[in-house]
What we know:
Elements: E1 2-5, H1 13-23, E2 26-29, E3 47-50, H2 60-66, E4 71-74, H3 84-89, E5 93-95, H4 102-117, H5 120-128, E6 146-150, H6 154-165, E7 169-173, E8 186-187, H7 190-196, E9 199-202, H8 216-221, E10 227-230, H9 239-247, E11 253-256, H10 278-284, E12 289-291, H11 300-318, E13 326-327
Parallel strand pairs: 1-2, 1-3, 3-4, 4-5, 6-7, 6-9, 7-8, 9-10, 10-11, 11-12
Antiparallel strand pairs: 5-13
Amino acid sequence: MKILMYSVRDDEKAAIKNWADKHQVQIDTIAQALHLTTAHQAEGYDGIVIQQRAKVEDGVYPILQQAGLQQIASRTAGYDVINLALAAASGLKVTNVPAYSPHSVAELALTHTLRLIRNLELFDFRSAKQDFRWEGLQAKEIHSLTVGIIGAGRIGGTTAKLFQALGARVIAYDLKERDELKSILTYTSKEELLQQADVVCLHVDLNPTSENLMDEAAFALMKPTAYLVNECRGPVVNTPALIKALKAHQLAGAALDTLTGEEKFFNVDLTGKELPSKELIELRAMPNVIITPHIGFYTNIAVQNMVDISLDDTLAILQGKKSSHEITA
């Protein structure tokens, strides 16, 4: 049995080798993503595993089908880069890793929130100019805040537990209410959450119903003293509307671990080069905005789990078994 893994980073290779040795399966890796120019490299392999932000072109699926492949495993939670209908039409089963480490993303949400409410970005901005005054930057204590979680699933639920443990009041909006969370949070409507929350944390999947979930109308409901924290997917936030709201002081700041069009600049060294996004340039110029390059997943445990679970799913399908992480259109 042979498996090809696309978009492999150096920090994943030890985990991949451990899994390959344990299961006695040959695994080859390439640094490139799955595209029309690299799809032919899957010929001769039994399975493939991918991780990428750019969409898989429609022409890739028949190439994989012709190569005799049965599946595509994404070692990420998001799978919007894959056309599920075309994959199914080409006889390809699709799997993802829905919960590689809820703590990894939740802890970043907490970290971002703490930096925002302590005005650390603004202090850094002043310090860089040798201005070491405190004036106007009095912080807030987290136990005095109401934190709103939009999307209280595995990650959102873990985030809620962290904030509740620190004494914050936690409210949540989700189409599916979980009984096990009701002792630590109060479910409410999206509108009520936006009106009440001092911090709004986004933890939803990207789908047609969540795209542009945070738009001009949503920002208009938020307190001018509130913060937005996005740890899920870029298109969940309408970026022009966010920029407009920040400029109009409709909210106090934002922490963004993901942005629309991020495949053009995140995890890319653009030192000394012109940034490819006008919106990114505008956001970076704002001292009350924190931008991190989609690193919510990037911990030792999460990377190990992403490798192990995606390969476990691939092996299961190749052995004629069913994966619990299989996604259908």
